[in-house]
Amino acid sequence: MAVAPEVYSRRYSRWQSICAGLAGLLLTTVTVSTSAETLTAAVAANFTGTMQKLIPIFEQQTGHQIRASYGSTGKLYAQIRQGAPFDVFLAADRERPELLEQQELGVTGSRFTYARGRLVLWSRSADAFQDPEAYLAASAGPRLAIGNPRTAPYGVAAMEVLEALGLADTVQPRLVRGDSIAQTFQFVATGNAEAGFVALAQLRAWDGDSGASWVVPASLHQPIDQQAILLARSEYPEAARAWLDFLVSNEAREIIEKDGYDTGDTPEP
Q1: pLDDT at position 197, please?
Q2: Structural domains of the chain in order of their starting residue, each with its CATH number
Q3: What average pLDDT does range 162-171 have in this prediction?
């Protein structure tokens, strides 16, 4: 049966449309693939668990990948100053990101508070203390873990608490210091210290016995403002900015708050 010319014309037009659509889809796929980057992030140890929840969501939404290096804020800051190839820095304080900005190692205007930490006195033993201040005031007793104030902002906050309570000298002989808040937590978790000042986020992530805990009143120490900053030597600044934007999204804030941080006054980057 002969096919009318107009039928051929319609079929050819449809074929052209299909080919154009496939070409567009292929171009889109190639564009997404070639624009996806792998970022390197320097991340404060206390934020490890939360970061591990956020990364897969960001990677799925953007196609970018993130390699995170965790450690004490002080040591990560030193590595950045020595030229470590990080794209972004998520510190546990505001001091180091501010210094990087002043030293032109951080991008001016990119610094913001992504979380405000909470400090907790914790022991695996439920009977360790009923009255936390009385426990701290004991002149002799088991070891008490804190982060090293020179490298760990949570250690600075712990010392401020002891000073505010007038107990810094009393507790001094009992102190054992971790290089990071992660190591401090391990001292308590493994029994190398009976109790210690740790991050609330760490305690919420702990899957062992809850033990005894005291969420330290924020009035006893300076706010633990954890700031992020885009680093000037970043090879992928657009992808890095996408990560910083994600950190202040409602989806990310919900996870951060659930893990024990406050985000109520974090400004847009």
Answers
A1: 97
A2: 34-116+224-258 (3.40.190.10), 119-215 (3.40.190.10)
A3: 94
